[in-house]
Amino acid sequence: MAGPRYDGFVPGRHQIDAYGNGGFRFADMSHKGSILALPSGIKAWEATSAQNLGPADFLPVRAEADDIELLIVGTGTELVPLGEHLRWHLRELRIAVEVMPTGAAARTYNVLVAEGRKVAAALIAVA
């Protein structure tokens, strides 16, 4: 791990500088594994596949729902539709959801953060 101490949470809004090799670079740090980029900061995320995502995987999103208008979900190298139960759960939070491969999701997130939008991202790491 390069840069400052990293304990699974980096406060503040950060662009995703790079993705691949099973992780991400942001805020002058590297992280192996998936991440949640939320209004409060970037958190390590246990998800490894979009196939079985459920409401419990998005509890941190629920906690910050008032500050999120759009959630971008990066599903890995391929587009994987979210299950209907999860879509309903996110709809109840009044959060719009866009699902796309992780690379496109990271790029879209960066553009929307730069525009000052109320956006969050759930990004599954890719090799």
From TrEMBL:
It holds the Pfam family DUF498. It comes from the Bacteria. Coiled coil: none annotated. InterPro entries: MTH938-like_sf, NDUFAF3/AAMDC. Transmembrane segments: none annotated. Signal peptide: none annotated. This is Mth938-like domain-containing protein. It comes from Chelatococcus composti.
